[in-house]
Amino acid sequence: MEIVVEGRYSMAYKYISRKEEDTIILAENLESERLSKMVICLKGDLGTGKTLFAKSFANALGIKEAVTSPTFNIIKEYLCGEAPLYHMDVYRLEGNVDDLGIEEYFTKNGVTIIEWADMIEDRLPKNRLDITINPISEHARVFVLEPHGKKYEELCEKAL
Q1: How does the average pLDDT of the chain come out, rounded?
Q2: 20: Cα separation from own chain's centroid
Q3: Between these two residues, 9 and 61, which has the higher pLDDT value?
Q4: Residue 149: phi, psi to the nearest 5?
Q5: For the chain, which terminal residue's Cβ has fewer other Cβ atoms within 10 angstroms, N or C?
Q6: Could you tell me the domains of the chain?
Q7: Quick check: 103 pLDDT over 90?
Q8: Do residues 68 and 51 lie in contact, with contact meaning Cβ atoms separated by under 8 Å?
């Protein structure tokens, strides 16, 4: 883990994932420190590992059913783990989420993970964890974690 201060926000953390197992470990570490009403916003191009991160987080929550990208469903609810998981993929909506009631999920107990969250930036809650995933090779990724709010800063300190 490396603390980066050059981000848009006051604090950001950089995590290097050299293989899929490293991404799984990151998701598991964040899950182990999870917050009530937690919101994780995933950003990155196609194939960078957003869904792998979400699957790994779900697995760490004890969710046994197959977790897939909710690209066509938009929102999938998994209620069978240690805490509810609300997994969203807003790519196809092109920012138009007016009729989904997406903000209601941010106040539910459990965890909300949003893929392509940068497409609905104006709808995201003030307190959240943004994770931007950038590829550096075929298998390696740089995860930049930007916490919004003290609880998310503490989460990053504990999990990383």
Answers
A1: 89
A2: 16
A3: 61
A4: 110, 150
A5: N
A6: 2-159 (3.40.50.300)
A7: no
A8: yes
